[in-house]
Amino acid sequence: MDQLPFTEDTVIFGLLCLCLGFVFYTSSLNTGFWKKFYSIVPTVLMCYLLPAILASLGIVDESSSQTYYIASRYLLPAALILMTLSIDLKAIANLGSKALIMFLTGTAGIIIGGPVAILIVSIFSPETVGGSGFDAVWRGLATIAGSWIGGGANQAAMLEVFQYNQENYGGMVLIDIVVANLWMAVLLLGIGKTKQIDRWFKADNSSIEELKEKVSTYTEKITRVTSLPDLIMMLFYAFAGVGIAHFLGNHFAGFLEDNFEVIRNKQKILSSLGSQFLWMVVFATAIGIGLSFTKAKNYEGAGASKIGGMFIYILVATIGMKMDLGKVLENPGLIAIGLIWITIHAGLLILVAKLIKAPYFFLAVGSQANVGGAASAPVVAAEFHPSLTSVGILLSVFGYVVGTAGAYLCALLMEVAAKV
What residues have CB less than 8 Å from 195, skipping those under 6 apart? Predict the structure, then answer.
């Protein structure tokens, strides 16, 4: 046991694949305990929780692991390309305005939730939301607002803008990871109850079903036995596309930073547009959409979206490994702020979804496009159906755009709330 925790990426990746293999094998069993189990718990949630358990028990140490980096920078853009090969832009446009309304509702929930959470916690634990100068807790919470509306680039921008004491920053990162991942687990759990939830919302999901049906029909028409040349060509499209997306993303982000002060200056609202990751995702998606207008879209029949789905599940496993369940109660005051905050976000989404009769898909993806960003919104969208991945991508990219401005407003409101 003196070898634990495992730190070598080769071993860690093997254990992640072991988790994925276990989940997919047991979920394929059509009788007995596992059939009942997976009728309640979605497979994607198990692919997320098992690596989290490995990390929480100290079996693996992901602190120096590159598995998440590889999955998010290589496999995610490859998955986006493969899963948008057969995209139908007209059908996505026909989904209507509810997707955008739910996304903006999620953003409003984060902006409002932060200051309200501070006010509530200050009633029974004023020291938790206190601090002065650069140690003020609201400054640290501003970084979470940046992460939960946009992503890592927006989070870094808020840290730069409000100059929170970096010695205490780890606690804020913990809230971000723990609460956001718990909420993602709840959303994934809800996917198994989509029909019941939509019935309660009285939602009209005909446009979503129409898109899924259209893609499924097209896939059936072009389905063929996959050959080695098919696999090599899909490898070519995916990873040549990844290389191009990284190249263009890095240079375009550099161009923007070099030529525009509002992007170069981390204290400016539009500074998050200098994120290389953001533009890599944008260009990877654009490449996939571009290929959908060529004969390359026929590779959907050879399993393009299935390979993309495999890459997404590897990403899910690496995300789960970042979650240490044992640290959930380590700082109960700050965790309480995070849980109240995300509850307000969730409550507002549920209220608006009920009022406008929006499908659960729009709630889940609209929320995750805020809280999870480009790395996990496509994961949640793809769990509904591979054809819906692009909806998650488009909304999460929009999150990057509004993230810093929304987080800045939230931070100002939290400052007021902390001084009440």
Answer: none
pLDDT tens digits, 359-408: 999 999 899 988 877 667 887 888 888 777 778 877 776 776 677 678 88
Instruction: Compute the distance between CA of residue 156 and CA of residue 174 in angstroms, rounded to an integer.
Output: 15
Given CA atoms 387, 392, 398, 401 in this order, what sign does their dihedral have? negative
**What is the Cα–Cα distance from 76 to 114, expressed in whole angstroms?**
30
Q: Which residue has the tokens 């003196």?
A: 2
* Residue 84 DSSP code: S
- What's phi and psi for 60, nearest 5 deg? -125, 150
CA-wise closest residue to 403 among 369, 377, 378, 380: 369
Phi, psi of 6 (to 5 degrees): -70, 130
Q: 6 has which bridge partners?
A: 60
Q: Which of 47, 52, 12 is nearest to 27 (CA)?
A: 47
330 pLDDT exceeds 70? no
Other C-beta atoms closer than 10 Å to the C-beta of 39 total 9
Q: Report yes or no: 420 and 118 within 8 Å, Cβ to Cβ.
A: no
Determine contact, residues 370/106, Cβ cutoff 8 Å: yes
- pLDDT tens per residue across span 15-46: 999 999 999 999 999 888 998 888 777 787 78
Q: Pick left, alpha or beta for residue 412 (phi over 0 → left; psi -120 to 50 → alpha; otherwise beta).
A: alpha
CA-based R_g, the chain, Å: 21
Most confident of 230-239, 269-278, 323-332: 230-239
Of 244, 254, 252, nearest to 287 (Cα)? 244
Select from 302, 369, 298, 3 the least CA-distant residue to 151: 369
- Which burial class, exposed, middle or buried, applies to 20 when counting CB atoms under 10 A from its CB (0-12, 13-18, 19+)? buried
pTM recorded for the entire structure: 0.70
Q: Is the peptide bond before 51 cis (omega within 30 degrees of 0)?
A: no
DSSP 74: I
Distances (CA, A) of 96 to 102, 300, 304, 387: 11, 25, 27, 16
Q: Which residues pair with 60 in a beta bridge?
A: 6
The DSSP-derived string for 267-333 is TSGGGGGG-HHHHHHHHHHHHHHHHTTSGGGGGGGGTHHHHHHHHHHHHHHHHHHT--GGGTTTSHH
43 to each of 35, 348, 416, how far by Cα in Å?
Answer: 11, 27, 43
